Amino acid sequence: MKPKQIEAQMTRVLSDAIAELRDPRVPLIVTVERVSVTSDYSIARAYVSTIGDIGALLDALVNARGHLQREVARAMNLRRTPMLEFFDANERRL
């Protein structure tokens, strides 16, 4: 698979997995704006946005990282599942 295809599929998988989280810090509407994967596929950076408290959302996502990585591994046929990192999509620094 090409990197852009992996990023697009990972965006969809993460969107679905985040919507199913049962954490009070995760608002009803969370948008995964984009996912970027490093060239060696070791790290996937997910940029998320929400209307609510972005700090609490990022904390909840970091807390659920293991679960979300398992969901990505289950849904995608990759040799190695990338380590997930979460960022505020509205912050313009990388």
From TrEMBL:
Cellular component, GO annotation: cytosol
A biological-process GO annotation: maturation of SSU-rRNA
Lineage of the species this protein comes from: Bacteria, Thermotogati, Deinococcota, Deinococci, Deinococcales
Role noted for this protein: One of several proteins that assist in the late maturation steps of the functional core of the 30S ribosomal subunit. Associates with free 30S ribosomal subunits (but not with 30S subunits that are part of 70S ribosomes or polysomes). Required for efficient processing of 16S rRNA. May interact with the 5'-terminal helix region of 16S rRNA.
Description of how the protein assembles with itself and partners: Monomer. Binds 30S ribosomal subunits, but not 50S ribosomal subunits or 70S ribosomes.
PANTHER family cross-referenced by the UniProt entry: RIBOSOME-BINDING FACTOR A, CHLOROPLASTIC-RELATED
UniProt-listed InterPro entries: KH_dom-like_a/b, RbfA, RbfA_dom_sf
Principal location class: cytoplasm
A Pfam family of this chain: RBFA
GO function term, MF aspect, one: ribosomal small subunit binding
Alphabetized SUPFAM superfamilies for the sequence: Ribosome-binding factor A, RbfA
UniProt protein name: Ribosome-binding factor A
Family: Belongs to the RbfA family.
This protein's UniProt keywords: Cytoplasm, Ribosome biogenesis
Protein location: Cytoplasm
